[in-house]
Amino acid sequence: MTRIFGFLFLCLIAGLSLTYCATPTQPTGGPPDTTPPRIISTYPQNGTVNFSGNEIRFDFDKYMNRQSFGNAFRIDPIAGVRYDVNWRGRSVRVRFEQPLPDSTTVIFTLGTELSDHNRNRLDNPFVLALSTGDTIDEGEIEGRIIDARTGRGKRDAFVFLYRFPFDLEARASYVAETDTAGRVAFTHLAEGVYRAIWVDDRNRNRRWDRANEVARPFYRETVRVQDGQPAGLGTLFVNEPDTTRPTLQGIGLFSSTRLRLRYSRDMMIQPEAEITILDSLGTAFTQAVPLFADKQQADVVFAQALRPLPENQTFTLRSQGVTDLRGNEPRTSDRIFTGSSDPDTTHVRMTRHLTERGVRGSEPMIFEFSTLLAGTSVVDSLEVVQDEVIYEAWEPLEVQDNLLFLFPPDVWDEASDYTIRIYDERAGTRRNIQTRILPRGELGSLHIRIAEGHRLEGVNHHISVLDRDGAVVFEGITEDELTVENLPQGRYTVLAFRDDDGDGRWFRGDVEPFRAPEPFLAQRNVEVHGRMEGELDLEYPHLPGRTDDPEADPNEEPIESGGEPEDGDVRPGESEAGESGPSEP
């Protein structure tokens, strides 16, 4: 009996321990919470002076992921402060092991890496500033970082700020990160001269590791801070080449010819891509055709060997033209896989309509399939319906591996409706594919002119026009102006840079010695109307050598947006300071 009571007593103690030690969580049930967490109060309040306490507190509106706090919490400008972190419910206390320095403005920042239990991150960095003296510094520096590939604000970019005298080998005096719109702000700064640089701070140690981390300067080398007068860094455009090569992580066989390749990154298939399969001696055994990247899991590529791969042999492969989304070829892999005796039972089905956005004139309609089309019934069973007329032997058409190209006899009839009926073996019936013919009336043009004062005699401007999917639809060079013809009606992004050094490439700037980036701009939401020629004047927001800080940055406002701006856009009339498998069935 004593043993029984002892056992029950231990169970009771264990249960109480679990009750009081368990990490609080959000209630379960209902739709998932996707809202970002908020800080609802702090102790002390922001802006407190004569602070002499040994702890601060942040109160949140929901339960937080406590492990995310360590990387998100920063103290500026002092370094080496030792502290303990204690959580209770939705609040966290930071207790300092030694007093904060006298007469100093101290800034405590919670970065956007901080998340709740549902992995929702803070939208914007949160700053709590206090002073251990009678006054608190009020200087401000503001700027913005834009992804030069898309024209969108670059989130989670780190900016290092150094106070004169500058020592770029030392830890940065202050660190800030951009919000969802790419804006960055330093507040509560002492008066003085500062220098800011963007750093790809991979190890989060507040130091620029020149051997392993990329850094770029803003157009202005230094800024002067005065209380009550915000200083502007301007807009920095960032477009660092991604040269990290993907890795082939797995090779699976569905049959003796069907391969599933899994990579470390999302992949795409370039024109003329090919795969060579090598035997155990390293001799080419056969070729394989890359078919498609999985729509739900883009890091998976399916391929089809031209010869069966026997189950009693081992193989390796080499590829060309199967790249990640930045065009990087995979690292050479010696991954070994074994052949298979299973027959290929893949159903022929269309995987993508590659021209679903529309064709015009004599452009072909292009359809992608799950397997090589040679020997299949796709072409023989194809029907093209033009209005109410059914064509069972459409010409001209062309088959390339797993792609089907349908051409018009002359040009597509803009007044007709075309439906393509493609037989689906798995469904046992034809699938109706709706198409779109782009009328000439929907095509417009855009006249682009470099504004006076932004041109240099004999210096070219490189201009790119991107559609809403980010695909480049035009590239051109001009000293002053050009016209982009035959643009379907819609919104576009225009990118441009002034090639001051004449090398045909955009110079991104050097930190040391300081060399400003070549002028660059990204104009989003440029409206093109059918049967009309639009006008667009381009002005670079920050030219090297300019000392003014324009209140209105022409790069930040959409042109004829015609609707609600997207996240990160600036609404007309507003100003901003400084401005990716499942097994195949």
TrEMBL record:
Residue ranges of the region described as Disordered: 324-346, 539-585
Signal sequence, start to end: 1-22
Compositionally biased region (Acidic residues): 550-567
This protein's UniProt keywords: Signal
Keyword Signal applies: yes
Domain SbsA Ig-like: 33-128
Keyword Signal: yes
Protein's name according to its UniProt entry: Ig-like domain-containing protein
